[in-house]
Specification:
Number of helices: 11
Bound molecules: 2-oxoglutaric acid
CATH class: Mainly Beta
Structural class: alpha+beta
Number of domains: 1
Helix content: 25-40%
Order of helices and strands: HHHHHHEHEHEEHEHEEEEEEEEH
Distance between the termini: 39 Å
């Protein structure tokens, strides 16, 4: 089982070896072996088996199996308990640039999502357009994915130009979650909000997607700044306390997915999800959304969208920040 779980973890890391050689591949993913085929059986029995356990037991079991670290299990349980005693914000605020201290006191310390505007105004990345991406970076080879939940995704690699041509033909791949390749990195600065002594930065990621592409409902064990560069994004967020309503499963130690979809809710299959409470936000170019660690989010791209994001992780779960989150 460990091998399968590691394979899932690795499946979120770009595999640049399997370049798509011709456009036949772009017109359908039939020749790509989906992870679900490889993992079928054992993986789904595991998910079903875990589903029968209570949340706490499930976490403890996953911690014992090494899928999530013991600190992570404890931290996530704390975070859920904090939010179950705290009112959800009515909406996600939009605020202009803040100092690091202001950001810490108003948002990071208590783990509240916010849209920060105007931060990236002067970053070269904000002048990226579809034609600029083709001209300047068209031959860059990246990974694309297709499919809904993380156990059903299939992957391939293609260049940015091949991908954009595919999007024009209406193909529904998502060039998602690629580490920003070095030639592009120079166009992107870093959001100046989190103290590098308390967090470590896990890298900048690039997301390019056509209309209705997006990310399935999930949460990360990291803080996240998500910048919209091009196009519009609709994002639904749910606080950590909603876990019991979302039919969650652990993809790997950093990622929890949900069987439930907030964008296509099926309350017959997932009746507990009626209780979930959502915050919705629409992002336009220049908006930097802060998604605190443990918040569930589901993303739908509207039109051709390009985003970059920054995953940050506190260096350990015992940092005062977590206690601040409990105490606020
Ligand atoms: O932009 C997206 O589609 C997904 C972003 C996301 O889920 C993430 O950064 O964790």
């Amino acid at each position: 089982m460990q091998i399968i779980l590691q394979r899932k973890a690795q499946s979120e890391i770009p595999q640049l070896g399997a370049k798509v050689k011709d456009n036949k591949m772009l017109s359908g993913m039939g020749s790509i072996i989906p992870d679900s085929v490889v993992n079928k059986g054992i993986w789904s029995s595991l998910v079903v088996g875990l589903g029968a356990l209570g949340l706490r037991q499930r976490r403890l079991l996953l911690a014992r199996l090494g899928v999530i670290g013991p600190h992570d299990a404890e931290f996530l349980a704390d975070l859920e308990s904090v939010w179950s005693h705290r009112a959800m914000p009515d909406e996600i605020s939009r605020v202009g640039p803040l100092s690091q201290d202001e950001f810490h006191v108003r948002f990071a310390r208590c783990g509240v999502p916010v849209v920060l505007t105007g931060v990236a105004r002067d970053w070269p990345v904000m002048s990226w357009t579809s034609s600029f991406l083709r001209e300047r970076y068209g031959s860059v080879l990246l990974r694309v994915r297709k499919g809904g939940d993380y156990d059903k995704m299939a992957y391939a690699s293609m260049t940015i130009t091949e991908y954009l041509q595919g999007v024009e033909r209406g193909e529904d791949f998502y060039m998602a979650n690629n580490p920003v390749p070095s030639p592009m990195r120079a166009d992107i600065a870093f959001p100046p909000y989190l103290d590098s002594a308390r967090y470590y930065f896990e890298g900048t990621r690039l997301w390019i997607g056509g209309d209705n592409s997006g990310a399935h409902l999930h949460r990360d064990l990291t803080d996240n700044f998500l910048l919209t560069v091009l196009g519009r994004k609709k994002i639904l967020l749910a606080s950590p306390s909603q876990t019991a309503a979302l039919y969650t499963w652990e993809v790997h130690s950093e990622l929890t997915s949900c069987k439930f979809s907030a964008l296509a809710p099926d309350y017959v299959r997932f009746p507990k999800a009626r209780k979930a409470r959502w915050l919705t936000v629409e992002l336009v170019p220049g908006d930097l959304l802060y998604i605190p660690c443990g918040w569930y989010h589901q993303v739908s791209n509207q039109g051709l969208v390009c985003s970059v994001n920054f995953f940050l992780r506190s260096s350990c779960a015992e940092l005062p920040r977590w206690h601040d989150r409990k105490g606020t």
